Amino acid sequence: MKRIKWFFYLFIIFTFVSNNSFACRYTVREIGFSDIGTKTYNLFFFTDSLTPEEQVVNIRKYSNILLRDTNVRMDIINIVENKSSPDLKFLSQYNNQTYPFAVLIAPNGESMACSYTKSEHSMLESSWYLLESLVSSTFREDLISRLIRSYGVVLIIEGTDSDENKRVKNAAREAVKTITGSFNQMPKIVNQPPEIMVIPHNKKDDEKILLFGLGINEKNKNDTHVAIVFGRGKLAGPMMTCGQITTRRIYNLLTLIGADCECGIDNSWLIGEMIPLRWSSSEQDELIKQLGFDVENPFVKTEMSQIISLKAIVENPINPLEENLLGFVEGSFEISNASNAIPKISAAEIQKSFSHGNQPKNNLILKKMLVTIGLIFLIVAITGFSILIFHKRRTT
């Protein structure tokens, strides 16, 4: 029994040490496929005393079906019975006289009135169409498919300036070309490079919900925008607009996706804002094939939750929008507008981006591995010595 206890204690020590000695097992991209820490969109259906009860029942039934496996949640609020509801503040922003009236609320508090009636369709058909359009579209289905099989997506939303649209597309192509050439520097290689998707200016009305999720509204809808999307429809950093868009910044945000979770960034970058979408079991099954593991596995999810919950361990976390996470990159960036150019990163800054404090990350990982190997040999030696002592005592 004593011998069994010794081996049990040694096994526990070895397991604990090995789990804490190696670098993070996951990249930012892999963590991005989880829904940990992400906030939902809220759809409020405002009704009054004249709204038929049957209609309310059917809307609730449809939501249970259509909003399952999505990041949109629905509440039905009767304005007569719930006069003190704090959510009525969203209704007061619109000059509405007819009910039911639907308002979609983004995680940042921005709201959007949703058209509830559809010509040549009944109210129930219109309800079904509205709920479905909130979480799915042909473009978003294509986007999800590309996110699963590729490194990520550079999403370009065209503006009214054709020259600016052309400049941004060239910048995106150059950034994708450069990041593809940098795959050998990454912790894990993704087979497919980033893809570029474009929403033409004349097709924006077809993707109002998606644009709302990206933060595009009436004030800026004519500008050219770029969003770096990865994982489960999450944004890597902020959406960039017009002059903010450069090859270097697109590239920098792309390096974030391929970085591991110990890359010296604030862990809030790991969560990211998510666009409204449906993530069904078929997408999850395909993702498991691509990753080789299930991000919804309780053990994996627990480990990822612990990673996200930890604060950044560097005093001054780097800003992935302004600094790339791969260090040295061969070649140069061609940026059409010199006034938008970002200064090159110095060697000291590159070293800082791979550091915990002032120690280079690669050296830190190497030391961890050496420590682990040393501990393994120590455990083996102690075990062998214990067995030898045990046998000697039995023979005497």
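Second entry:
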Amino acid sequence: MRMLVVLNENPVGSHADVRRGLLTLKSRSHLDEYVIYPFSARLSSGTSPAAIEEEIIAAAADLEATAVLWCHTQGLDVATATFSRVRSLPSRPVHGYWEGDMYQWPYKPFPPAARRVACACDVVFIPGSSSFLLGLRRSGCGDVRYAPLPADPDRFGHSAHLRQTESEFDVVFVGSNPTSRIPLKTMPGARWRGQLVAMLEGKLGRRFAVYGHGWRGPCAHGPVPKEGQAEVFARSRATIGNNNLHAAYYFSDRLPTAMSCGAVTLHSWEPGFDQVFGHDAPLRFFCSTEGAWEAVRRVLETDDADLEKERLRARDLALARFTISHVQDYIVEVMRELWQARRTGVSPRVVLNPWLHREQL
């Protein structure tokens, strides 16, 4: 498999996790060759969309690409003819679209430009099933697969040494407070997030800490950079989180990141989590504000030795199933089978989803 990755990267090199994951696949011979085309950087440099399309076609031809993976292309409108021209190359590439964000009308509609790219592709990978999936189906996307948001093991898989002997906090919440001035536009999970934070402030006082934009009060500690999250988790007995948008199988990358850091992780429940994580996952889920407090209370009643075992199990699960190379490996395997089917005229082999019990959403 020779893959051209059309990446929403600006500046070049800022998606180091994506680049390391692809390098890992190549080192394991799961990917023969790849080239990254950072379309966001090209747009910001003043390159016109038409010139970018020509550069993408030329890059696919030079690579003799068998697959083109379009990543989160909300800022790039691509002509339908471009896909046909790429498919007509001698290597006959297949197209895939990989979306790492969750969308839901009316709170966060899928950008029209990205929708057009996704619908022109042979397969689409999204991180959850909701009205987002239904919208893709209505737009003509027939082959849609689940690909969860992953952890970056190079940044967060080796942070156990940061844990302090005495925890500064009982619980930390890492996430912004994304409210809108228009009530209808405030995402359901964002409203609940405010209730969770207020409840934990009232119950725990200064033993609770919330990090992120938009929070005020004695427990607010301001935003924390991605690289600093491991240290935040290490200062607390547990971390808690919830989704802004509710969708089956969906969670943001904060969940596998916390797991890979070896944090005791509490998170809001979404349908299908028993499939994605397994029935005996080292995670504590809740479905209501009262359930969140009950989960926190049980953590506080658990001795440190048992919590440490839970941390190690969470980290092992994240590194075994939820790293970026795991997700990329699945995407590459699916696209390889689609390309083989196009080349031979034989139906593609079923590629079982590593996280769900079926091939497609």
